[in-house]
């Protein structure tokens, strides 16, 4: 599972449309991120995702943007 798919599915437990709204992108962009076919996220997008996780009271670690937990690999 890609790092982005792990964040979306295991941390947020939401669909691609909802994740796209959080990141400020389109659903096709999220799909491409998950497939590794799109450029990396910007710092602004990462910040938006982290802020949304914090606002929802979700457990969060910034390293997940780069290395998913072993259970997600």
Automatic annotation (TrEMBL):
<feature type="domain" description="HTH cro/C1-type">
    <location>
        <begin position="4"/>
        <end position="36"/>
    </location>
</feature>
<dbReference type="InterPro" id="IPR010982">
    <property type="entry name" value="Lambda_DNA-bd_dom_sf"/>
</dbReference>
<protein>
    <submittedName>
        <fullName>XRE family transcriptional regulator</fullName>
    </submittedName>
</protein>
<dbReference type="GO" id="GO:0003677">
    <property type="term" value="F:DNA binding"/>
</dbReference>
<dbReference type="InterPro" id="IPR001387">
    <property type="entry name" value="Cro/C1-type_HTH"/>
</dbReference>
<dbReference type="Pfam" id="PF01381">
    <property type="entry name" value="HTH_3"/>
</dbReference>
